[in-house]
């Protein structure tokens, strides 16, 4: 092979890699990215059954039901509407009433959101960013 | 003392400005005295930053709550270790540590670089000066750690309890040594572009610096992963969190750089590509700093957020990445080409490695930035997590791991693939055997799990095969072989160790991902549960008190398959009073190489407590592998030929004539 042919083959190889990576990325973004919704946005959203989403908002006051074995039930609210959530497992340390939370999972046929992971804040001063932004936009919560 | 620290920081900024301009001007005009200014100024800049850092540390040690930063992040009852490490457990302090390490590297170049060509040394120091000046200005303008409170409170607000751990003493300094260490490679690359040539000294210098930075970054990431694993109580070791990706991208690019630098040093090929990789690697470090420090992301690493900081770092980012890439576009064409090799050769294998690693870096970059970009453009908020990376990063890494053992056994310039395959026959047989054993004897093993274990065994045996072949296994007597093995260059051992470490990490990953067991249940005192052949007996909760927290300790007894009490295990829920913050302290029992991991949840109505238990098979190998990679790096760094002082006079002579590189 001449130097030019070699160079071309290297470039072709690199392009093949790039093509494969791009194809994988587009496929994965279409399939595996989960969208974030606040409870009030859910009515407008069209969700396929079983589609994974991230549900964000505040833990509604007085809705946490613990202690029935390992299952915990609570509602996530954005002060406009609220969504019942169930979760089996250990909640984050900073999971409390009227605190920002993001639940990841999907809706069961009965309309209950079944979360397989629940994220709360990392420490007492900061909210999950998506939740903080949305609540600030609604004017129901302010940064202290 | 606090004001002295602030003043020292301002002086360090002034030093950085001098370092940015004078040596560069000297190099352009050929003024030797101006060029010589760079070294002493870099050392002085480091000394001043160190003084400043020491002042802040003293304020923490003495719990001087008249300093806002100390008041916000410390507490008089906090153990001394966390008082010291708390210095960098906040935004301002961690930026100061960043700059301290940057100036340290500048000073190291100044001290060890006496045998570099004078203009190259001057230019490198100038570029280090630019970075230092930009970040010192950032600290002084937006993140001053020395701000006083007029009316000092008597007690501090304490450090985030998650950070009150030995991990804070190790993880950030190591990670920064890696992150910031790549700045030296960046400075060398930019200096070469300014000079318009890549000489032999350049090639010989970049490799050890890359190796050192890579070594620390590997250790820092592994340590961070283990810390998150035991501290957060979720049992996870990697979350594909943007903040983790921020450190992982420079690691991937740095690993590519490490390999292309070998080709450059040994074969004078791939020079321009190596130069571009050096720029990209540090650019990714800067991007990581931006992502973590600007507050665009929420995570344990994002301390208080302040929009002006984000904009400032974004400006630094744009300036350095844009500037260096523009310079590359302008100058790269004028650098000479050369170094021909056959596609089937060690060089070819290293190019393949680079293709895999850079495309993998690109997919991680897309997965990290896409949600941010999408939100800025459409307002849609999406999250890209493990499923995305499993589909993109996974398929790119798996074939790379398959080809890893081929690299070291191929010859330079023109290799023999058939011969290489024959030499790796034993390793291949071992891997195949591992696949069969897993398929036949492990219950519930999927094909993927078996193949994964096989891949790990292939990597481990491949690394050993390389050492065996190079010491003449099969062709010489045992005595001669041992003699040869001892006499092998350190870099050969380094390569084998690092690849061996990759195999161990792979083994750990496959073990946990495929064979992990998890149970969540409510337990009352006296109740037992079974997992992975062990029985866990819950003794009950007892209250306890630490220096700055109270806790409920859950005691468990671990009983093995023979019914004998093996050991006890304590998992607790802590409550830090100053911050009113609860944390979970997981109870972990290592049964090498696996671990039993117990996390406590909420109390139940009937006096029990929710317990989450994981059996994590082979999990410790994930980090052991990281440690072995790091040791591999250190061993390789001790190689005589790589030792920074070694190039001596030959470097000067070689520097006279530019050495060519392949323009890709």
UniProtKB/TrEMBL annotation, chain A:
PANTHER family linked to this entry: CYTOCHROME C-TYPE BIOGENESIS PROTEIN CCME HOMOLOG, MITOCHONDRIAL
Biological role: Heme chaperone required for the biogenesis of c-type cytochromes. Transiently binds heme delivered by CcmC and transfers the heme to apo-cytochromes in a process facilitated by CcmF and CcmH.
GO-annotated biological processes: cytochrome complex assembly; protein-heme linkage
SUPFAM superfamilies assigned to the protein according to its UniProt record, in alphabetical order: Heme chaperone CcmE
Taxonomic superkingdom: Bacteria
InterPro entries in the cross-refs: CcmE, CcmE-like_sf, NA-bd_OB-fold
One Pfam family it belongs to: CcmE
Segments on the Cytoplasmic face: 1-7
Principal location: membrane
Transmembrane portions of the chain: none
Molecular function in Gene Ontology: heme binding; metal ion binding
GO cellular component: plasma membrane
Localization of this protein: Cell membrane; Membrane
Protein known as: Cytochrome c-type biogenesis protein CcmE
Family, similarity comment: Belongs to the CcmE/CycJ family.
Record keywords: Cell membrane, Cytochrome c-type biogenesis, Heme, Iron, Membrane, Metal-binding, Signal-anchor, Transmembrane, Transmembrane helix
All ranges on the Extracellular side of the membrane: 29-144
Membrane topology: Single-pass type II membrane protein
Binding positions for heme per the UniProt entry: 122, 126
Automatic annotation (TrEMBL), chain B:
Positions of the Cytochrome c-type biogenesis protein CcmF C-terminal domain: 314-640
GO BP of this protein: cytochrome complex assembly
Residues in Cytochrome c assembly protein domain copies: 88-294
Topology with respect to the bilayer: Multi-pass membrane protein
Gene Ontology molecular function, alphabetical: heme binding; heme transmembrane transporter activity; lyase activity
InterPro entries: CcmF_C, Cyt_c_assembly, Cyt_c_biogenesis, Cyt_c_biogenesis_CcmF
Known role: Required for the biogenesis of c-type cytochromes. Possible subunit of a heme lyase.
Protein name (database record): Heme lyase CcmF/NrfE family subunit
Record organism: Allomesorhizobium camelthorni
